[in-house]
Amino acid sequence: MINEFQNKKEFQEEFKRRIIERYGRSIEQAHITEKYMVLGEMVRDYASIHWNDSKNTVAEKQSKQMYYFSMEFLMGRLLTNNLMNLGIYDLVKEGLAELGLDINELENLESDAGLGNGGLGRLAACFLDSLASLNLPGNGNCIRYEYGLFKQKIINNEQVEVPDQWLALGNVWEVRKPKHAVNVKFGGHVDMWIGEDGKTVVNHIPSFVVKAVPYDVPVVGYDTKVTNTLRLWSAEVADDACDAASLNEYVNQVREICSNVYPDDSTEHGKLLRLKQQYFFVAAGLNSIIQAHLNIYNTLDNFAEKTAIQLNDTHPVLCIPELMRILLDDYRYEWDDAWKIVTETMAYTNHTVLSEALEKWPVQYVRELLPRIYMIIEEIDRRFKYACSHEFGRSDLMNECCIIKDGQVHMANLAIIGSHSVNGVAALHTQILIKDVMNKFNSLYPNKFNNKTNGITHRRWLLYSNPQLTKLLEDTIGPEFKKHPERLEDLMKYVDDKDLQKKFMDVKMERKKILAKYIKDTLNIDIDVNSIFDVQAKRLHAYKRQLLNVMNIIHLYFRMKQDPNFRIYPRTFIFAAKAAPSYKFAKEVIKLIHCVANKVNNDSDVSPYMKVVFIPNYGVSIAEILMNAADVSEQISTAGKEASGTGNMKFMMNGAITLGTMDGANVEIVERVGYENAEIFGLRADDVELVRNENSYDVWRKYNQNQEIQKVVNSFVDNTFSSNPNDFKQIYNELMFKNDEYLLLADFEAYVYAQQNVEKRYLDKDAWARMCLVNIAQSGYFSSDRTISEYAKDIWNIQPVEVK
User: Which residues have CB under 8 Å from 465's CB, separation 6+?
Assistant: First the structure.
């Protein structure tokens, strides 16, 4: 077989030939989108050779495989990533240049795959990259969303959601696999009788059937032949599923399953659609895994020995009763044997300590939409209650830990009971799970709970998105860190080198100029590249406290307006965040940010010293130019509320200083860099818990004690930032009439003081550069390669494979 990437000439000839064959026109006549599609197809086809070899190797060696079930995989653009991982980027770049084509123009045509929302999906994507790069057989399972979450526009200072048409050009990386399609059944009723073998025979007669068709995407490892699979399921019309008269209604019901990530669940229809999505990708994914297993082994007795399934949050937890259904109904296993296989296969990652975020489904929804699954959940629950009183001797925990209670199915409880491992995603988070949120379960299953601190792929977030810093690091400590990110610690020997400090600040300036150009081009805002770039980029939620950041900006604005002698070192406050469409408070905060920005940026007294920028439609590609330009990384969630965070790690790896609370992975960042190389403020998790338990916090006392706080809070409703005093009424009410649930006023003074410290420290450029270098040097621990190695060893028991 000809290797079209063997040299530039082979590549150029194949590229030109494919354009003619596919589009019937020469390279000169072809449209740029056609050139992009052909290049992508060539790279995918080249990767497919290793993809095939990887599948064959795993089958031949009968290696255990892991499947990562997640509602989200925020993969980002894949062209650059795949070219780099395959080691052919420079050849392609030069070959295209000789044909008069700029590779950057082709790269920029690719859309971010609309397969998620935030940190959960980006973590899953980092994990896939690490699995392949570490030669581990691990695959992803998700839904092929047609329109992603939404594309965020800002109109009249407000977030407006429009469809994210990420598939407008198609997805060049996917391969449709209709032969692996499977029917998924919903609704209807269940008939049961005793068969000739004395076992129960179950026949589910559905009211709605949909065909799940897989689209496979190759996951290319770095400098290895191992290529894994991300399988995306698309809902299509099933054969003979409806009559002609009801076709339109049926087609609409089918299409909406894969229309968007997280449909609006403020309505009953939206809630049912979410539940339908979850079962759809779980049922389809398990079916394909079982068929692949049987093709090799002819039995499911060894399923748990050869298969690990990781449940990323509670969304895929229906895997537990669905696998039970398959083993019981389709393969006639006894309950105890099936339960052993299920619990040894499943592992669950918890991502939240917020009780409202732990999924619960009304019994009525589950019973009507998934009648057989509900019967199995009932039986799991019954047996768990029996075990509580008879095996554990803890009948006192029965009602608190059971799955079905108060008319709801508690998915986190089902996940814990049906998995052999339950992990948190940062040391503090896991500690809170064990001591508080899941304390009762820990007393029943003390060996189930463990910590796996999150990580990020340094390939995307350092090597590929920040080539300037990568070159500086390679020149200083050699190239070993590219394959072994823990070797970044070698940089510690050089952090006091004045020449290196200056070179680092030059690299940072280059990245700041790139970001400043993007902001000018997209928002027509001029920002001072010599200012401190202070960045908060994450999903907008009350506990993440973007509002606290805004409150400090308002405070600084008032001080500068009041006192002509008070001026700060120039600072650019940059926000990037999406709010859930039905989350009114979060959308109000976005509006407030824009109204404050309008006031600040157009004030001739203040704007030379302070600018406020909101970058719309935040996603992976924007993060790739935003995080490496930041000087300050805002990680200011209420202590004890953020499970981990991974943005903090991306900022750190690119040489930004963490300004944050002792929450999530911030705790472990500070453990590694030292308090002197971060700016930590505010209540600790224990303090927050004490305040809650003693009911000792009074927001009005805080408000009345501090005139500066009063002025800031009053500005939400006194027409300072909007002519309509009701525009920010909900923000005011959340703070003042819900007793400041996330303790913004409690931490306000400490945050203002911390911001002043940041400015003082930045003025000493050598010391600042040293701090940044220490952060980079200590960031290797937060590589997802380390995280995945721990999962592979402690939970999945999978081994690297060698693809010849």
Answer: 624, 625, 627, 628
Pairwise CA distance, residues 234 & 247, whole Å:
18
Tokens for 524, please give them.
Answer: 């027509």
Beta bridge partners of 98: none
Q: And the tokens for 621?
A: 């590609």
Q: Hey, is 233 helix, strand or coil?
A: strand
Instruction: Using DSSP bridges, classify how beta strands 182-186 and 208-220 pair: parallel, antiparallel or unpaired.
Output: antiparallel
Within 10 Å of residue 529's Cβ, how many Cβ atoms? 19
Please state, in angstroms and as integers, the Cα–Cα distance from residue 381 to each residue in 332, 375, 415, following that order: 21, 10, 12
690 contacts: CB under 8 Å, gap ≥ 6: 696
- CB neighbours of 709 closer than 8 A, spacing ≥ 6? 702, 703, 745, 748
Quote the Cα angle for 605-608-611, to 5°.
105
CA distances, 668 to each of 427, 572, 711, 757, 779 (Å): 8, 27, 36, 21, 10
In angstroms, rounded to a whole number, what is the distance separating the alpha carbons of residues 698 and 700? 6
Half-sphere exposure of 645 (CA within 13 A, CB side): 34
pLDDT-based confidence at 118, cuts 50/70/90? Answer: confident
Q: Exposure of 704 by Cβ count < 10 A (0-12 exposed, 13-18 middle, 19+ buried)? A: exposed
Catalytic positions: 351, 538-539, 544, 646, 650
| 277 burial level (CB within 10 Å; 0-12, 13-18, 19+) | buried
Find the mean pLDDT for residues 395-424.
Answer: 97
Give the alpha-carbon dihedral of 551, 552, 556, 558, to 10 degrees.
Answer: 20
Angle, alpha carbons 369-374-379 (nearest 5°): 175
Of the candidates 371, 296, 388, which has an alpha carbon nearest to the alpha carbon of residue 62?
Answer: 296
Is a pLDDT exceeding 60 seen at residue 450?
Answer: yes
Q: Is the pLDDT of residue 1 over 50?
A: no
- Across the range 195-203, mean pLDDT stands at 89
Q: pLDDT tens, 762-777?
A: 999 999 999 999 999 9
pLDDT of residue 124: 98
Q: Could you give the CA distance from residue 636 to residue 548 in angstroms, rounded to a whole number?
A: 8
Q: Whose structure tokens read 């917020």?
A: 354
Dihedral (C-alpha) 107, 109, 112, 113: value to the nearest 10 degrees? -110
pLDDT in tens, 661-714: 999 999 999 999 999 999 999 999 999 999 999 999 999 999 999 999 999 999
Strands 175-176 and 208-220: antiparallel
Q: What is the mean pLDDT of residues 346-366?
A: 92
Per DSSP, the residues of 283-316 read: HHHHHHHHHHHHHHHS-STTHHHHEEEEEESSTT
In the predicted model, what is the mean pLDDT of residues 498-519? 98
Q: Is the dihedral of CA 411, 413, 418, 422 positive or negative?
A: positive
Separation CA 279–CA 33 (nearest Å) = 36
Q: How far apart are CA 310 and CA 312, in angstroms?
A: 6
Angle (nearest 5°) at CA 252 between 246 and 257: 130
For residue 320, the model assigns a pLDDT of: 98
Average pLDDT over residues 345-359: 90
Exposed, middle or buried by CB within 10 Å (0-12, 13-18, 19+), for 689?
middle
Using DSSP, state whether 669 is helix, strand or coil. helix
Contact at 8 Å (CB) between 122 and 454?
A: no
Residue 188: pLDDT above 70? yes
Please give the Cα distance from 417 to 78 (Å, whole number): 37
Say how many residues make up the chain.
804
Distance between CA 727 and CA 733 in Å, rounded?
12
Tell me the one-letter amino acid at 652: M
The residues pairing with 479 across neighbouring beta strands, listed in sequence order, are: none
